[in-house]
Amino acid sequence: MNGRTFRNAGVLVAAAALLAVGCGQGAQDTGAVVSTEQDAIHRNKGPKVTVQQSGTTSSLIAVSALNSKVVWASGRFGTFAVTSNGGRTWRSGVVPGAETLQFRDVEAVSERVAYLLSVPTSPPDPFIASRIYKTTDGGRTWKLQFEAAADQFHDCFAFWDPWSGVDFADSVNGRFPAVRTFDGHSWHDYGDHLPTPLPGESGFASGGTCIATQGNRRAWITTGTPPAEAGGAWTTRVFFSTDRGHTWGVTTAPLSPSGPDAVGGGFSIAFRDARHGILAGGDLGVAEGVVVPNFARSKDGGRTWTLTTPAPIPGAIFTAAYAGHGKGHDGRGRDDDDDFGEHGHGDGPSIRVVATAPTATAWSPDEGQTWNVIPGLAGLWGVDFGDQQTGWLVGTGGQIVRIDF
To answer: Element (H or E) spanning 3, and its range?
Structure first.
């Protein structure tokens, strides 16, 4: 796979994964089925899941939970959805002029304010470049804030506060043309501050979590790079910044799919404080049902990573999230230097993790050391939590599933 082809891997890889499970953009999407085993799981302090009505049949890809009440989701055909009552009711809509776009990331700021990030369209649709939109009236109107150059593929973004955020884009001509904002209105290229890319290095737009922020200054990005020679291993890297993206360090991580059909690396990254983080990914090229090393932890702010027990999710994890934010989406997150130790704060619910992909969904009570499948959930792409007990998963066919610990 050459560099130009891989710049579109966010779409191509995701499309391949969907086709593999029979739920491509034009296919009939399969709804979630909640197993009767859920009651037993919940009694054993596992999660309880509840299917909610999104008001759309368009596939949803990303979700951002501000708290236990306000949640935004986004997906195909220019679709967004929002709730202000914990999902008892959802209001969905389509951004005017964006009907052919896939919104691969969403950031909730309040019940009225949110940002959307789209990936470029591809044939047979008319080409439209990556875009960033913002609403300040609950989705009734949207303002186009940024439109990328035609050769750019923007994968994901994350925010420190309602006005300050950073995005990531696949490499083009030896640099990453990523953008950031510090006023919530204008977006400016900061690619010269990022490390020099490896040939073909890119992110995965699988659920909007290839970039993460924490506190007021810290940020992390995870990538994948195809092997230089056939039969080699993909390279997973993590970039880290402690000054809002002005300077970046870089390290490799041990999620390295190998083999002639390998396609993968780091898909999703999250931190619960300045030091402790998780990295999820895998390999979309493995045989059906095969589980590969797909989950790693860091205890030093992302500088080094150690594999944990693989989550029981075949192929690649699309999105992983802590049950409890490392920072508040409303800008009132903990300072960067906060450190709650090995077991998080209080009784440790912040080290609960949920990981999902179209193939399966699983949860861990101990930051990836042990895992449990959540039965009956399929076709899900994104997961996020509003607090340490309550989160949401989204996926094909407009699925929205609430999860409660």
So the answer is: helix 3-7
Name the average pLDDT for the chain: 87
Segment 191-214, tens digit of pLDDT: 999 999 999 999 999 999 999 999
Residue 140 φ/ψ region, left for φ over 0, alpha for ψ in the -120 to 50 degree band, beta for the rest: alpha
The secondary element (H helix, E strand) that includes residue 271 is strand 264-271
Cβ-based neighbours of 340, under 8 Å, separated by 6 or more: 272, 273, 276, 350
Range(s) of the domain holding residue 132: 3-404
**Measured between alpha carbons, how far is residue 211 from residues 1, 96, 160 in Å?**
24, 27, 12
Rounded-to-integer distance, Cα 234 and Cα 402, Å:
34
pTM: 0.88
Averaged pLDDT, 202-229: 95
Q: How many domains does the chain have?
A: 1
CATH number of the domain residue 110 falls in = 2.130.10.10
Predicted confidence (pLDDT) per residue in 32-66, tens digit: 434 444 554 555 578 999 999 999 999 999 999 99
* Angstrom distances, CA of residue 172 to CA of 4, 5, 221, 224: 8, 11, 17, 14
Distances (CA, A) of 229 to 5, 8, 36, 234: 16, 20, 48, 10
Mean pLDDT throughout 370-382?
A: 96
> DSSP per residue over 196-215, as a string?
PPPTT-B---SSS-SEEEET
